[in-house]
Prior knowledge:
Number of strands: 6
Number of helices: 2
Low-confidence stretches: none
Strand order of the largest sheet: 2-1-3
Order of helices and strands: EEEHEEEH
Shape: rod-shaped
Mean pLDDT: 89
Amino acid sequence: MPVYEYEHAGPGCKLGKVFEIEHSIAEAARRQCPLCGEPIVRLISRPFISAPTSDSDLKSMGFTKLVKRETGVYENVTRLPGESRYMEAGKPDTTPHIRRRVSD
Length: 104
């Protein structure tokens, strides 16, 4: 269930000036504080977006990460067994196996 941020129109209560309420997305925005009954407004907040933080996270999600080592040479740090460690420009046999990572 989503968590929504609300703010008291006045000074606030024990919940604080800004507080969170968990309720269904189908429910209308609350208009009164559940604790003190004072008017409240729902805030628009930034959503939390999780991003992969390591090479192993990228690999498990099916991504390929290439790190430039020199002109035309990239290291495949998320390589799968059987893939070349280095991808070199002009050598198609060194490119990552896309069909092994992507499926329909």
